[in-house]
Amino acid sequence: MSYRIEVDGEICISSGRCVAEHPEVFRFDDDEVAETVPGAPTLPDDVTLRLARSCPSSALLVFDAQTGDEVDVFAS
C-alpha cells in the first residue's frame, strides 16, 4: 500500500517534530504551522504511520494514495 500524508493546520500545535525528523517533507509556513513541502518525496509506509502516530496533536493525516480514503493510523 502507498500512503499520502497531510497536515491539518487547524489542529497543528507547531511542535516541530515532523519538521525536525523529515525536513524534506515538512516545513513551517509563515504562521509557524507545519505544512507539507510541494513535490516532497514519499516516505516509506512504516515511517509515515510512525510519524502520524507520534504527532502530539494528531495533526498528521494519512490517506491511501490509491483510494484517497483516510487511514486510521492507530488501527494499521
Automatic annotation (TrEMBL):
Cofactor(s) named in the record: [3Fe-4S] cluster
InterPro entries in the record: 4Fe4S_Fe-S-bd, Fe-S_cluster_ET
Keyword Metal-binding: yes
A Pfam family: Fer4_15
Domain 4Fe-4S ferredoxin-type: start-end pairs: 3-31
Keyword list, A-Z: 3Fe-4S, Electron transport, Iron, Iron-sulfur, Metal-binding, Transport
UniProt protein name: Ferredoxin
